[in-house]
Amino acid sequence: MAGMLADKNILVTGVLLESSIAFHAAKLAQEQGANVILTAYGRVSLVERIAKRLPKPVPVVELDVSDRAQLDSLATRVGQYAEELDGVVHSIGASPSDTLGGNFLHAPWDSVAQALHVSAYSFASLSSACLPLMRKGGSIVGIDFDSSLAWPDYDWMGVAKASLESVSRYLARYLGAQSIRVNLVASGPIRTMASRSIPSFDAFVDIWEKRSPIHWDENDPVPTAKAVVALLSDWFPATTGEIVHVDAGLHAVGA
Ligand SMILES: NC(=O)c1ccc[n+]([C@@H]2O[C@H](COP(=O)([O-])OP(=O)(O)OC[C@H]3O[C@@H](n4cnc5c(N)ncnc54)[C@H](O)[C@@H]3O)[C@@H](O)[C@H]2O)c1
Questions:
Q1: Which of 27, 41, 197 best tests ligand 1's pocket when mutated (most atoms within 8 Å of CB)?
Q2: Is residue 20 within 6 Å of ligand 1 at its C-beta?
Q3: Low-confidence ranges of the chain (pLDDT < 70)
Q4: pLDDT score recorded for residue 193
Q5: pTM metric for this prediction
Q6: Exposed, middle or buried, 225 (CB in 10 Å: 0-12/13-18/19+)?
Q7: CA–CA distance, 94 with 24 (Å, rounded to integer)
Q8: 9-248 in CATH: which number?
């Protein structure tokens, strides 16, 4: 099949609902010729149901990135559907409610540790788990929210995203020798299940409406998904350790 990802095998994590950024990345990847395999965190039958809305049928493999045994068996379980992987999408983030919403100074370490484990360390542990299937090199892409600034209410999730950015650079350093590129897409705000846990999400939307140089639509995950597909493709052959901002230019302007 023709397309930017023709005949590539791509593992996509992070599909929960049709609103998930990962759902749109998987959809576009299929439209661009990829064979997609999804992972599901816990609710496998829900993800299988949502996956039926994709253009083509996909296998769904269970994965909780905080479960060592599931990571250790991932390559074998994914290997039932694809001998090799050409790309991996990390679209995973979670932060307990006591780490968000203005509780920064009082957030307990256990909750912060959970946020860092699931949202940042998992970029490395997922990548390592997929390495046995990436013998020919490939592309790993994660989803970021610009963490060069302190945002209202984003709190320890912002710290987790800063860690994700650093993890991404180290992965680029350590996986380059295996011809694996590692990049992030720093997305503007999009209405998803994860965004509902950010109390001042509407304030973000207001900031984007007032300040972004070009129009941003918080109900449209497609621009972010397009960047993911582009980074998975052969069209960024010399780009790694990069953060591509898909935020209507907001990161580039002041007040
Ligand atoms: N929505 C936004 O405004 C926005 C902006 C920038 C970046 N992001 C990032 O995009 C990514 C995807 O989020 P989304 O907005 O599509 O929301 P979403 O709620 O649809 O997706 C988050 C996913 O994380 C998964 N997840 C949570 N804990 C997990 C675990 N232990 N193991 C495996 N998977 C787990 C959930 O199952 C879900 O599929 C996240 O990294 C998020 O931080 C979102």
A1: 41
A2: yes
A3: 1
A4: 94
A5: 0.98
A6: buried
A7: 19
A8: 3.40.50.720
